[in-house]
Amino acid sequence: MTVRGAEKLREELRSLKSESRPAVIQAISEARAHGDLKENAEYHAAKEQQGFVEGRIREIETKLAEAEVIDVTALNPGGRIVFGTTVELLEEDSERCTRYQIVGDDEADIDAGKISVSSPIARALIGRHAGDEVTVNTPGGERIYEIVKVEYI
User: Are 122 and 147 in contact (CB under 8 A)?
Assistant: First the structure.
């Protein structure tokens, strides 16, 4: 996972523990004050929300504990595309330029220009250099890209 991805997860964890968890505990407390718990929809909804919050906390803690955080700015890959690299690509057919950062599966967000390291395009790019051409098999057919720029930011 990238440094930014780890920071984002730590911020979500902090928010869950310091904001969401106390809010859910308060909601459960208020729902209990309304009486009979068997037929108390507010109580059951709050308990369900508590299960979600606690599950997400455990999931994030596990990911952070098991993750290898890679700071691409500290690497010296010699111009090669590696995990964390930001690349600018020119698609041959459309002459359209796109910019992607290769990130972990959990960080991938195509709208933000972040593609998963396990995606077909990232797998085709790993190990290549600026100036190289890569052919990527996509669901829409074969596409050819020229690697315009490789950045480690």
Answer: no
